[in-house]
Design brief:
Arc Repressor Mutant, subunit A
């Protein structure tokens, strides 16, 4: 029976709670052959024969010591007692040809990936609640998302809190523009990003990369490996391409928006007219005709003057 790589890999996955990388699997096969070579050398080495010691003096028989009473039931039986100590030697070297026979000296990354793909297909076909995923650190067996409620009940964990729309937009800007400062995030989104960044830092989806080489040395942010697992990709190269603006266009737009002047009426498509801030006082009316005052006389009819 030929060596079954798929069975061995499945056992290694079940035995480890950490992601299993390809280099770790190859290192395990290397250690297997080193141990096999060491055991073969020990088996081929002849055992040393100790010659008997010849003496003319008679050898006195050793005096048997009286048995010592003890209450410990696990204590070994004393020498010379009626109970004989029997040593059982168990062969710890399995002889299963399916697992230990004809083990290849070199397991390539392609062979490991093909076997992992078969394991993943078998798990999905069995529908037993286990999935095989590949993350940034390697392969790992996980429970199916539909069993998440039972897992939270067992661990007594609260339901996960969903990210707000503001936090998702901030996370998208960090993912595509990293390393990015808070000022750049706020310029792109047009609103304050402090609350969103704090929430993402708390969830360990982003982390502080360093400081930008700019006035004030602002803090720069980037995404974590947990972010990759959160969205189900192995590297940032698997992010979908932006269908809005390219990175160069975003750079030019950020530079323009940072050094831009206040918009004028012309920039907004309005007529460039200068309107006075306050209405001017009305001018006095002038005329060439003389102005005469009419004197009113209060007289009573029928009264002699």
């Amino acid at each position: 029976m030929a060596f079954n790589l798929k069975k061995v890999l499945k056992a290694l996955l079940l035995s480890s709670s950490q992601p299993l990388a390809i280099k770790d699997i190859q290192a395990a096969f290397t250690r297997f052959h080193e141990q096999a070579a060491s055991l073969q050398l020990d088996a081929d080495e002849p055992s040393a024969v100790v010659p008997p010691v010849i003496s003319d003096e008679p050898t006195a028989a050793p005096e048997s010591a009286p048995p010592v009473a003890t209450d410990d039931p696990t204590a070994p039986a004393p020498a010379g007692s009626a109970e004989e100590v029997t040593e059982i030697i168990v062969d710890t070297t399995p002889n299963d040809p399916d697992l230990y026979g004809d083990v290849p000296s070199l397991i390539t990354a392609t062979q490991i990936r093909e076997a992992m793909d078969q394991i993943s297909a078998d798990l999905r076909a069995a529908d037993d609640g286990l999935l095989l995923i590949e993350g940034t650190a390697g392969f790992r067996l996980v429970t199916h998302p539909r069993f998440a409620r039972w897992i939270r009940i067992l661990r007594q964990e609260p339901p996960p809190v969903k990210l707000s729309q503001s936090a998702i937009e901030t996370l998208a800007v960090v993912a595509y523009r990293q390393p990015v400062t808070r000022g750049e995030i706020e310029t792109i989104r047009g609103v304050s990003a402090e609350a969103g960044i704090n929430k993402l830092l708390e969830r360990e989806l982003v982390y502080i990369v360093g400081r930008a080489d700019a006035p004030g040395r602002p803090i720069q942010y980037g995404t974590t490996d947990q972010f990759l697992e959160f969205i189900g990709i192995k590297s940032l190269d698997e992010l979908p391409a932006s269908d809005v603006l390219s990175s160069r266009q975003i750079d030019e737009w950020l530079k323009t928006s940072t050094n831009s002047h206040p918009p004028t009426d012309t920039d907004m498509g309005l007529a460039d007219e200068q309107l006075p801030l306050e209405a001017a006082a009305p001018a006095p009316v002038t005329s060439d005709e003389p102005v005469t005052e009419a004197a009113s006389v209060d007289s009573t009819p029928g009264t002699p003057t």
